[in-house]
Amino acid sequence: EGYxxxxxxxxxxxxxxxxxxxxxxxSIAGFDLDVAKVKELEAEATSEMKIKGISSLxxxxxxxxxxxxxxxxxxxxxPVDAVLESLTPLLSKGxxxxxxxxxxxxxxxxxxxxxxxxxxxFMGMGVSGGEKGARFGPSIMPGxxxxxxxxxxxxxxxxxxxxxxxxxxxxxxxxxxxxxxxxVHNGIEYAIMQLISEAYDLLKRGAKLNNDExxxxxxxxxxxxxxxxxxxxxxxxxxxxxSLTDGYLLxxxxxxxxxxxxxxxxxxxxxxxxxxIPTIDIAVTSRILSAYKEERVCASKxxxxxxxxxxxxxxxxxxxxxxxxxxxxxISYAQGLALLxxxxxxxxxxxxxxxxxxxxRGGCIIRSVxxxxxxxxxxxxxxxxxxxxxxxxxVIVKEKxxxxxxxxxxxxxxxxxxxxxxxxxxxFDAYTxxxxxxxxxxxxxxxxxxxxxxxxxxxxxxxxSWQSLNQ
Length: 471
Ligand code: 6PG
Prior knowledge:
The strands form 2 sheets. The protein has a 7-stranded mixed beta sheet with strand order 3-2-1-4-5-6-7, with helices on both faces. The protein has 471 residues and is of the alpha/beta class. It has 3 domains: 5-171, Rossmann fold (3-Layer(aba) Sandwich), CATH 3.40.50.720; 182-431, N-(1-d-carboxylethyl)-l-norvaline Dehydrogenase, domain 2 (Orthogonal Bundle), CATH 1.10.1040; 437-471, Single alpha-helices involved in coiled-coils or other helix-helix interfaces (Up-down Bundle). The protein contains 19 helices and 9 strands. Helix 1 packs across helix 7 (146-159) and helix 9 (211-222) runs antiparallel to helix 10.
């Protein structure tokens, strides 16, 4: 009898997801060209698991029951196309290929069309939660063909994380919606990580907290309204000792952050379809700036005249930084979710925002108790264009905004970089200003380029022969 599922790619993520599927009672065959990985797969399996490792693609395909359900867990980009090229000729009508990597949504659109022309289903499915998540319960964001999704649904619900006994997986919409939602998840992930790093800097260089004290602060934050995966792991990072020196590992890590592209895509997309997500943008560009290590060292010597004044009341400062971080995080989610709203219209995804925040409550990297509040907001109004417009959310924002202002002001006046916090505040201030000074920009555009403008007091499009007074 054939296996119910197939997994292509037995790297850490693929193998862990495969074990998770097997743990939940589904039979699954794993394929990898690397014979060592195939052997390892079976060696580490438990006796209850119905699994098989195979290193011939033909044997793998014929080991699967019909319609085949094949999950790809290979690096995004060319590797996915390479797999599809050798895999699709071996498949039969109605078979389903599910790409569980961080693929670019446009690539998924192309692959959906390509496989559809061969009578095959192709689905993009975001999976978040890292190695542990994949093994014990990730947040899963599938999209695309609804019939194909229905066939996978019981398995996905079984293997995903659970919050209040509800599975952290749901149908994310048509076409490549699954990849799109995961991309935005990662954009928000970038923003929150940037903000946490700024809070760390403020507490470390501003309030002069050491790693043990930072651990305590993050522990406390994580036990309250700021409870989230990223705060939790940050807490633990402050306690990690270094195996090569006597100090803490964090203090030995080079301040250059890498990126694999999903954050950049989120920003590019936002520009492309006209959505303002500055805190995500700044998080992407901050990683880029971090790479200029040598230049930064030179510049720091040239401009070494900055002095940091410690805050007077450390306890109050910690509270303020915490509230600022909380609110800036909320604003980052607001930006990412607003991008999903627009993308849903623009690309016809029909993304259910309520389900997005619901399945982000567990398993994924950006899981946090804050998402529960968003879930309530979308339950009341599934078409909310921006989470900041929700009444209950506005109460939280009003409570915290002065802390964000004070923290941003402290950072600015002491020269502690705080691009994320400043941008979150700037976005909030602009978003909540009824009359922006952009009337002047329109006047300038019309002045030098006859780009025309609209008026506040009457309909129509206007152009003026602006008078130069410099004669
Ligand atoms: C997740 C993560 C995962 C991965 C990111 C990291 O949700 O499990 O987002 O997908 O860790 O790709 O992205 P960068 O390497 O670009 O930071």
